[in-house]
Amino acid sequence: MLKTPQSFSRILRSLGKLLPLMVKCKYRVLITISGSDPEKLGFLTAKTILYYDRVIRKYKRDLDKVSILYVFHDEFSEAVYMKNVFNKIVEEKAKHSRVKYIVYEISERYLGSTFDILIMDLTKDLKPNDLGRLVGIVRGGGIIVLITPNWEEWDKFMTIFKRNLTVPQYPNPRHIFIKWVKNKLLQHNGIAVYDADRQCVIKNFGKLQEVVEECHRIVVPGKRIFPQKVYEQALTQDQINVIKLLESLYEKPKKGRKKAILVTADRGRGKSCAVGIGVVGLITLLSKIKPRVRVLVTAPAPSNVQSLMMLAKQTLDKIGFGYKEIKRGANVIELRSEKFSIEYWEPINIPRLRGDIVVVDEAAGIHVPMLYKIWRSHDRLVFSTTIHGYEGAGRGFSVRFLKRIKEDPATTVYEYEMTEPIRYSINDPIEKWHFDTLLLDAEPAELTMDDLRAIEEKRFTYVKYDPEYLFSSKGEDELRQLFGIYVLAHYRNEPDDLGMIADAPHHIIRAVKLPSGRIVCALQIANEGPIERDIAIELLKGGRIPGNIIPDRFLKHLRIIEFGYTRGWRIVRIATHPEVQGRGIGTWALNKVIEEARENGLEWVGAGFGVNEQLLKFWLKTGFYPVHMSPDRNPVSGEYTVLVIHPISSRVKDAIIIANREFKLKLLESLPINYNDLEVEVARLMLDYGPSLIRDLVLENMFSNIQLERLWIYCSGPMTFEAASDLMHRVARVYWMLPSSKRPKLSRLQEYILIAKALQGRSWEELSGVLKVKTKVLMDEARSISCIVLEKLFKWSRDRLPGIKMEEYTGLPLFI
Questions:
Q1: How do strand 625-629 and strand 641-647 relate by DSSP bridges?
Q2: Choice between 319 and 395, residue whose per-residue pLDDT is larger
Q3: Alpha-helix runs per DSSP H in 67-155
Q4: Do 231 and 241 meet the contact criterion of CB atoms below 8 Å apart?
Q5: Which burial class, exposed, middle or buried, applies to 619 when counting CB atoms under 10 A from its CB (0-12, 13-18, 19+)?
Q6: DSSP letter at 72?
Q7: Three-state SS annotation for 326-341
Q8: Which terminus of the chain is more solvent-facing, meaning fewer CB atoms within 10 Å of its CB: N or C?
């Protein structure tokens, strides 16, 4: 029969002394119970819950049941046994507790939920994303229990997360992230650590400063247009204020103008819930003047909008609106009735749909070009985003997107930042630990005038970082700067990315530092290749390999097996400080990476990214060849993913030249099918870069005599583009296959017409909208192209005699 050790009772007594302060100040505390015996761990966790359940009622007399979320991995027998030990004790002795048992795979569903206690079984895994998403669900006055392996052995414990970071060439992960987490647990107040194996207290809670927040009375606006019952769903004044702000969308903006509401908040402030409540307020009003109200909701994933949907349902129930709930798996994706619909769609779909209101939740998780498309496509919009937290993106959202729409004279922007947490105090010690551990509030260093002068003078240092140093007390400031730059420059950052920097054995970190020590460019690089012959053959057949993204795609799509035997670097991320982008820092850093790779005997440096004109020019400028592009747009970013490679060795250069030629040929053939919406300048850059597809002109291989006659008729005037579309398609293909020195000289606009009209098959109206040129001008320019091609390539002029003799017919041309 297990007994509670006196040493553990000390922790429970300390918890008891803190509980009145926790309730009064809405604080949470955290207890870490480490050990190797699942029975003992389950027993001590249950004793913690029994003690809390008994004592908390002295200070929360209106508490009915203590709500507990227990998260574990059910595929491990030890974890199941520990859960059963815990459950048996709690069921017998904690009659007023309600426990919900879930596995980590579905934990994302509980992001908007609230519990008194969270228990995380970390004995088999510590996935940073799990820590990021779950800690925030506990209300003030509650506790978090982390169950871990033996404290001394935990650092080097092979977790599921670490195992998934390994690749065949690097089978042993680093053991840095858990050591970092342990240090942070020891540094912060409000956290106790207990070693169950040695039955000793490693650390007690420490002192918590009493800071009682002023109790704000929620005041519903006297002048309002939403029903009172809508406002009654709010829990804080911040939420009231957001709901009031949404009233401004009731009146449709004048033609050509837009209204955009921006709601920002740290994690746990209830912004999504407030928007969900406000959306129902808009439906109650708009349904009186419209036969059906359509609200479009988007976010990086359906799970992001569940809090919004939950509060929308709650508000609809309160005001008596019936609806049907549509689910995709466990996620609600639509609330529908004859009068309205609230529909979730992936970001890529929003610009082509028509809605009365568009809500973009967790907007900082969506790539900025896609946000622009959504903004342009609708006139009443709500953008809500987390600034700091699991879904956060620092202040980059404001830097990259908000500035642009605020400068638009046709857009009225309403801004509101929520600061009041819903579940716990703004001074909560666990939120401080949470943000500090996962760098949820990391941002780049502020640059001085001296820094800007150093940048102008190119006084840079290329730094090779040891992850052990970065995750130490000495290197922490630089780690925060690095991660802060990643957060601002990239559209999706998660705690898992931090864990990958720490523990992925094939990843390395590089940076560009100024004389002041401030970092202005951050790089994350993955070692890839070589791949053993047997595995390479399996990849050619469609097999899979962890990591090794560039060799994998090269083998699957370009079929050159020798490339699999090479070794190179894939640049996972390269990001420049947002205040000094466009000043050559990234290019300087990229050249340094190539130089280092050459010194290390590597054969290539590559990268994959969501392609847009600016990014593609950056990579092409430094000698990277496009070799592959995904056949579909990413549903969140709305971009095609492109792989580019810079060759270092001569054998790899030969392979990449072949790959680039094959890629351009594939692109030419696919533009009318897969890529008919590819940005025109992106297509032009990729078709124009690298070696030509053919070296010499063989006229009889290009057009039959009859085709040339038809092209001449189009040039002369009687024929329309539509009647000559097959010929112009062939002209476009020939033009982009020729070396640039042998092409007829066309203007940039004419090149765009060849791509967008002759190859992609866009309508004149669409082309006019994209290129901002009148349709008549485009038609005239297209006709001019045919005349230029006939004159320069075939020496035909408009005044030649039409017609051919039968004996002059040379037969069908080769399809080149």
A1: antiparallel
A2: 319
A3: 77-93, 128-134
A4: no
A5: buried
A6: E
A7: EEECCEEEEEECCCEE
A8: N
3-state secondary structure 668-696: HHHCCCCCCCCCHHHHHHHHHCCCCCCCC
Please give the Cα distance from 217 to 277 (Å, whole number). 19
pTM confidence score: 0.89
C-beta of residue 635 within 8 angstroms of C-beta of residue 346? yes
CB 470 within 8 A of CB 480: no
The residue type of 406 is K
Compute the radius of gyration of the chain from its Cα atoms: 31
**HEC readout, 573-642:** EEEECHHHCCCCHHHHHHHHHHHHHHHCCCCEEEEEEECCHHHHHHHHHCCCEEEEECCCCCCCCCCCEE
Q: Considering all CA atoms of the chain, what is the largest pairwise distance in Å, rounded to the nearest integer? A: 109
380: exposed, middle or buried (C-beta count within 10 Å: 0-12, 13-18, 19+)? buried
Residue 344 and residue 362: Cα distance in Å, rounded?
13
Distances from the Cα of 153 to the Cα of 148, 182, 203, 204, angstroms: 10, 11, 17, 20
**Please, which pLDDT band fits residue 303 given cuts at 50, 70 and 90?**
confident
Separation of alpha carbons 366 and 372, rounded Å: 10
Contact of 175 with 467, CB cutoff 8 Å: no
Report the C-alpha gap between 575 and 637 in whole angstroms. 17
CB 173 within 8 A of CB 197: no
Q: How sure is the predictor about 809, in pLDDT bands with cuts at 50, 70 and 90?
A: low
Distance CA 277, CA 223 (A): 18
Query: Which contacts qualify for 164-168: CB closer than 8 Å, 24 or more apart?
Result: 164/546, 165/499, 165/500, 165/503, 165/504, 165/505, 166/505, 166/546, 167/505, 167/506, 167/545, 167/546, 167/547, 167/548, 168/531, 168/532, 168/535, 168/545, 168/546, 168/548
First to last CA, the chain: 83
Apex 668 CA angle, 665 and 669, nearest 5 = 90
Q: Order across the sheet with 411-418: list the strands.
A: 324-328, 331-336, 340-344, 293-298, 357-361, 380-386, 258-265, 411-418
Phi and psi for 32 in degrees, rounded to 5? Answer: -105, 120
> pLDDT digit string (tens) for 86-111?
999 999 888 778 999 999 999 988 88
DSSP sequence for 540-567: HTT---SS-HHHHHHHHHH--GGGGG--
